[in-house]
Design a protein that fits this description.
The complex is a heterodimer of chains A (49) and B (487).
Chain A: H1 17-24, H2 26-47
Chain B: E1 3-7, H1 11-24, E2 29-34, E3 38-40, H2 45-48, E4 59-61, H3 62-69, E5 72-82, E6 93-98, E7 107-111, E8 114-117, E9 122-123, H4 144-162, E10 167-173, H5 181-197, E11 204-209, E12 224-227, E13 230-233, H6 234-244, E14 247-250, E15 253-259, E16 262-267, E17 272-276, E18 279-283, E19 286-287, E20 292-293, H7 302-305, E21 345-347, H8 378-398, E22 414-419, E23 429-434, E24 454-458, H9 459-476
Parallel strand pairs in B: 1-2, 1-8, 2-5, 5-20, 8-21, 10-11, 10-18, 11-14
Antiparallel strand pairs in B: 3-4, 5-6, 6-7, 9-19, 12-13, 15-16, 16-17, 22-23, 23-24
Helix pairs in contact in B: 1-8
Classes of the chains: A mainly alpha (49), B alpha/beta (487).
Chain lengths: 49, 487
């Protein structure tokens, strides 16, 4: 991917190598899997009336 | 005995039908009228569209499931509602036309005590000339059949790329009034993922085209999340992913014509433009299914029951429809999904008429509306179906006189897991929640609760989406403990 000044993709943040590593790091993602499920469960509980 | 007739067997209708049949028992009757023989877990169509799943993995036959659940099943399309009955029939009824069960083409009247309209969308490919897989030049992932066809076309394209050809891929919304940008978003990144797996990503230019004012609007006026020490717009989050995956984007676009290999579109600034493609998946706008309504004398009262788009009026504040965006309020949205003229009628999911958009209305200098319409699919759709089922249970069994359970979109949240590629260890998805769905700027500075609104990209999101695929199919098939799986 080439980023050139003044093109649309030159104004956006892009993930660093460490961020990309974390996104596919299985132990870390297992923790995030639990965290996402907790967040979604809380959302569901708040949404039932 | 009370009879509840449910028009439509998609996410909201199926949820309402299965819970009601369980709660009401054999003393009452729950009838589902749906033209389809199979139920489709639509979110996984994205994976069918890139060959990651077969069509058979995302559908199942409805008849045995409804037989098990005690639901009376009519494979038919609903034609008209008669909420006062007719000169010949005192009781309110619907007319249907069979599409299967060896009665194709036959008509029937079904009387009801309570009616739930859960008819879902009409995929309005006709709104844009040349759009769609049947008579147009683009593919679709809106149904399992469409997705399977899209996968075949993508495979042909990949074969050509493997022989050295360079190709242009265009994915997005096929009209200025589309909703469901999430599906286009997911398909974009699944196609990107597939091309990388096949080793031909360098042969493809992928462009995303959208009617959103900014990427990340998703028809809900965007959202803010806490990210990297900032409260930041979802626009930044979305654009980052497009840049990372080397996907170009065209925003504020109304596609007005599709020719073989060429899309014509108007931008919000009024300019007319063209984009060439070798493979294109564009989402169509949604419409109501075109139900008619008649009073006892046989007079057409469709406009009293449905808005011009074919969506049923419920307990929303429709007086705000023409008001400026700044005057809209979270309370404009319906609580009980109950029609106020005929209170034994309800509409859930796509079928109810929203009081107005969620995103800010925009028009080009030529007068063309270019703005996303409100999404009412997935989780909120199922929650509406269940809330109406709970209310009807209380009305039928416990003599409640008014609905008892609400699913107001300004008081419920939504979880969305947008796949960005399939694979147990190589997959990725954007996991998002927002609370509430309708921004409430009186209550929250950014319109939503930042503790209930988040987004993150990673392998864990893919695991969640894959888990939900199995969980929701398990639930829809009424397998053991299905009621424990939330909406």
């Amino acid at each position: 991917m080439e980023i050139k000044p003044y093109e649309q993709n030159s104004y956006t943040p892009v993930p660093s190598a460490f961020t990309k590593f974390r996104r596919n790091c299985v132990p870390w993602q297992f923790i995030r899997f639990i965290a996402i499920n907790i967040k979604m469960t809380v959302l569901i509980l708040k949404s039932h009336h | 005995m009370a009879r509840v007739v449910i028009l439509g067997g998609g996410v909201s209708g199926h949820t309402a039908a299965t819970f009601l049949a369980k709660w009401l028992g054999k003393k009452h009757e729950v009838v589902v009228v749906t033209p389809n023989a199979q139920w489709n877990w639509i979110p996984s169509n994205i994976w069918v569209g890139v060959g990651g799943m077969s069509k058979q993995e995302v559908v199942f036959d409805l008849a045995p499931v409804y037989a098990k659940g005690g639901v009376v099943y009519r494979q038919a399309k609903a034609l008209s509602i008669h909420p006062e009955g007719s000169k010949e029939e005192d009781k309110q009824f619907v007319t249907i036309e069979y599409t299967g069960q060896d009665k194709t083409g036959e008509s029937e009247k079904i009387t009801y005590d309570y009616l739930i309209n859960a008819t879902g969308p009409k995929l309005n490919f006709g709104a844009t000339e040349g759009l769609g897989p049947d008579v147009g030049h683009t593919v679709s992932v809106c149904s399992a059949e469409h997705a399977s066809h899209a996968s075949d076309k993508l495979d042909e394209l990949i074969a050509q790329m493997k022989s050295g050809e360079e190709k242009r891929i265009l994915i997005g919304t096929g009209h200025g009034m589309c909703t469901c940008q999430g599906a286009a978003f997911e398909y974009t990144f699944n196609v990107d993922h597939k091309l990388r797996e096949e080793g031909v990503r360098d042969k493809a230019t992928i462009t995303y085209i959208s009617n959103e004012y900014e990427l990340g609007d998703f028809g809900v006026a965007g959202m803010h999340i806490k990210l990297g020490g900032y409260v930041t717009s979802g626009k930044v989050f979305a654009e980052s992913l497009y840049t990372e995956r080397d996907v170009n984007w065209i925003k504020r676009a109304h596609v007005n014509k599709v020719e073989k290999g060429k899309v014509h579109y108007e931008l919000l600034d009024g300019s007319q433009n063209e984009e060439l493609f070798d493979f294109s998946m564009l989402i169509p706008p949604f419409g109501g299914v075109g139900l008619k309504a008649y009073d006892k004398a046989g007079e057409d009262i469709t406009s009293k029951i449905f808005n011009p788009g074919g969506f049923m009026f419920v307990d929303a504040d429709y007086s705000k429809g023409g008001a400026p965006y700044e005057d809209w309020d979270a309370d404009d949205w319906p609580s009980y999904c109950q029609n106020q003229t005929y209170k034994n009628m309800y509409a859930v999911g796509i079928a109810f008429a929203p009081p107005h958009l969620i995103s800010k209305p925009m028009k080009s200098p030529n007068g063309t509306p270019i703005n996303p319409t409100p999404p009412r699919t997935g989780m909120p759709s199922a929650m509406m179906g269940k809330a109406v089922a709970q209310s009807l249970k209380d009305i039928i069994l416990n003599n409640a006189t008014e609905p008892t359970h609400s699913a107001k979109m300004s008081e419920i949240g939504a979880a969305c897991v947008a796949s960005a590629g399939k694979g147990i260890f190589s997959g990725s998805a954007v996991a998002m929640t927002m609370y509430p769905i309708i921004p409430n700027f009186k209550k929250y500075k950014y319109g939503r609760d930042l503790d209930g609104t988040f987004g993150e990209i990673g392998l864990a999101g893919h695991w969640v989406k894959h888990f939900l695929h199995f969980a929701f199919l398990w639930k829809a098939k009424l397998k053991p403990f299905w009621t424990l799986i939330p909406e």
